[in-house]
Structures are given as structure tokens and as C-alpha cells.
């Protein structure tokens, strides 16, 4: 009998080692059996059994502790929700901004693709992403066009941001802007134009050269505009700001300045809101003196690369 019970205990013990605690309950069913067992089992086996027994005995205690921990977590969650709920309510009380889409068209002309190195195409890609996201959250979003999309830029978009095919409120064409928008509507924005933009005409389509060239192709957009016989103009930077670097801005900065001007109705405010600090922009008052010094950082840096704070549009 004893031998049989040892056998069954040993096999139950084996099962226990495999994690079956129920079997161990049977094994330790009576004190008499335990005593017999203790005599026949090795010291190591006895220790194991004792450990299992303790584990069984502590089951309720563990259950109780688990319950307490759960209650504590629930309480913490509840407290956090109350705090956040207060904040969320405060946010809800803020007046909703009325979005009024503008009829003005902003075209990014991507016809310079073959003039750029892959790394600059990557920068342009980010600048375009930035234009898209800024327009989506603008108070007066423009009619955004991307024209002549193809080549390296499209490849970059297909590889790094497949979601572009689902972009909303944007017209993306592989055709040249001259085939998409009526010629008389077009105004090429270019820093080399002698014409200075004073007001925005909401019936016009303003074209921005989709180019990151570190000024290697100086004047290229001005030449193109003249060849096509379309209007051109530069932003009125000189009238409102003095900068410690060239007045050639990155695509997204031009785009965002237009959005900011439509929202704030002031070129000066728009420039100061958007221009990166490293441009060292300083406001100009009527007599030509300066009134506001912006922190100067990296004054020799590349005008094509947006500010450090503008991670989305960076290289
Ligand atoms: C990095 S720039 C390209 C510079 C290029 N060498 C060129 O000839 O246009 C990107 C585009 O932003 C626009 N842009 C930059 N600075 C401007 C300014 N001061 N006034 C008007 N447009 C500007 C132009 O459309 C320009 O093609």
C-alpha cells in the first residue's frame, strides 16, 4: 500500500513539477499519508512538497492581494480621468475656429525634379508634407496644387509616405501647371522678380518653384516665368524685414507665409510668425530703421533648409 502511495505521490509530484497543482492536493490529502510520505521521500522531494503546500495555503492571500492591487489601479485611473476630464472640459469651452476655405490657388511646381540630388528631393518631399499639413489646419486653406509630379519626388513619396494617395483637399497632377491652370491666373513667386507683391488676389494661382537647389540654379524660376509669359512677383520681404541672409526662402516657408498673411492680414506678422530665427529677421519701420531683433542663429546656413524647430520639413 505504502509503496503504491509513494508511487502515486511520486508521479503526482512529477506532475507537480510540470505545474499541475491539483495533483499535489491529492498527494497531501492526509497527515498520516504525509508522515509516511516524509519518511519515504528524499529531503529534496520533501522540501518541494512543503513549498507546494505553502503555495496552496497562500492562494487566498494572493487572491486578496491581487484584488487590492486592482482596486488601487482603478482608483488611480479614476483620479487621472478626473484631472484629464477637467482639462478636456476646459478645451471644449474654447471657441471653435471657423474655417473658411479660400479660392486662392497655391501651386507647387515640381518640374525641376531632374535638377536635384536625391537628398534634396528628400528635403523637398518633407517641405511638401509640411505645406500639406499646414494647409489642412489653416483657418483659410488655399486650393493646393502639386503639378508635374513624377520622377524622383514621386518615387520618394511612394516609398516613404504611401498615404499621399489619400491626401484630401489637394489636386495632384503629373501635368505642367500651364496645362492645369489658365495662363492669366498664374503669378510665379520668385525672389528674382522686380515686382513686389503687395496684396494677394484670391482669383490668382500663385506658383512656388518646387526646388531645393542651395542657390545653384539662381534665377531659374524667374527665367521660366518670363519664357512662359506669365506674371511674376517677389514677396515684400524688403519692405517689412531686414534679414542677415539671402531672401530666398524654402518652399514651405513661402507657402506658410501666404497662409499666415491670409489669417493675420499683415505681411510683417506673417514673416515673423513663419521665418526661421536663423534668418535673423529684423522688422523694418517706415524710416528704414529696425525695431525688433530676432535671435540670430546660424546666419550662414542654407536657405533651403527649414529651422531646427520645424522638424517635419527638415532634411
Ligand atoms: C528654394 S527657392 C528656389 C530658388 C531657385 N533658385 C529659384 O530660382 O527659384 C523655392 C521657391 O520658393 C519661392 N521663393 C523663395 N523665396 C522667395 C521670395 N523671396 N519671394 C517670392 N518667392 C520666393 C520661389 O518660388 C522659389 O522657386
UniProtKB/TrEMBL annotation:
Assigned EC number: 2.1.1.221
Biased composition (Basic and acidic residues): 1-12, 79-90
UniProt keyword Methyltransferase, yes or no: yes
Catalytic class of the enzyme: transferase
Protein name, UniProt field: tRNA methyltransferase 10 homolog A
Cross-referenced CDD domains: Trm10euk_A
Basic residues: bias regions: 62-78
GO cellular component, one term: nucleoplasm
Gene3D superfamilies for this protein: 3.40.1280.30
Role of this protein: S-adenosyl-L-methionine-dependent guanine N(1)-methyltransferase that catalyzes the formation of N(1)-methylguanine at position 9 (m1G9) in tRNAs. Probably not able to catalyze formation of N(1)-methyladenine at position 9 (m1A9) in tRNAs.
GO biological process, one term: tRNA N1-guanine methylation
Disordered: annotated segments: 1-98, 286-315
Amino acid at each position: 500500500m505504502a509503496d503504491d502511495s509513494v508511487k502515486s505521490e511520486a508521479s503526482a509530484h512529477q506532475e507537480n513539477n510540470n505545474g499541475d497543482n491539483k495533483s499535489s492536493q491529492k498527494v497531501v490529502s492526509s497527515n498520516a499519508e504525509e508522515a509516511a510520505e516524509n519518511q519515504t521521500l528524499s529531503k529534496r522531494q520533501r522540501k518541494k512538497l512543503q513549498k507546494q503546500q505553502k503555495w496552496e495555503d497562500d492562494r487566498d492571500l494572493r487572491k486578496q492581494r491581487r484584488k487590492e492591487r486592482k482596486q488601487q489601479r482603478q482608483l488611480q485611473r479614476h483620479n487621472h480621468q478626473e484631472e484629464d476630464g477637467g482639462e478636456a472640459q476646459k478645451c471644449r469651452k474654447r471657441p471653435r475656429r471657423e474655417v473658411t476655405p479660400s479660392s486662392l490657388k497655391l501651386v507647387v511646381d515640381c518640374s525641376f525634379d531632374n535638377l536635384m540630388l536625391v537628398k534634396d528631393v528628400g528635403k523637398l518631399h518633407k517641405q511638401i508634407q509640411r505645406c500639406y499639413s499646414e494647409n489642412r489646419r489653416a483657418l483659410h486653406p488655399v486650393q493646393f496644387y502639386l503639378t508635374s509630379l513624377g520622377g524622383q519626388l514621386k518615387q520618394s513619396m511612394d516609398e516613404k509616405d504611401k498615404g499621399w494617395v489619400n491626401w484630401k483637399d489637394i489636386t495632384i497632377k503629373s501635368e505642367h501647371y500651364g496645362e492645369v491652370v489658365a495662363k492669366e491666373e498664374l503669378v510665379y513667386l520668385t525672389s528674382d522678380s522686380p515686382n513686389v507683391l503687395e496684396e494677394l488676389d484670391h482669383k490668382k494661382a500663385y506658383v512656388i518653384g518646387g526646388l531645393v537647389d542651395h542657390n545653384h540654379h539662381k534665377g531659374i524660376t524667374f527665367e521660366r516665368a518670363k519664357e512662359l509669359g506669365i506674371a511674376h512677383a517677389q514677396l515684400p520681404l524688403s519692405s517689412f524685414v531686414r534679414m542677415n541672409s539671402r531672401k530666398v526662402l524654402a518652399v514651405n516657408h513661402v507657402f506658410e507665409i501666404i497662409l499666415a498673411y491670409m489669417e493675420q492680414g499683415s505681411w510683417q506678422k506673417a514673416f515673423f510668425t513663419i521665418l526661421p530665427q536663423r534668418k535673423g529677421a529684423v522688422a523694418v519701420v517706415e524710416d528704414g530703421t529696425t525695431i525688433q531683433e530676432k535671435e540670430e542663429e546660424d546666419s550662414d546656413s542654407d536657405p533651403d533648409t527649414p529651422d531646427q524647430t520645424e522638424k517635419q520639413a527638415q532634411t
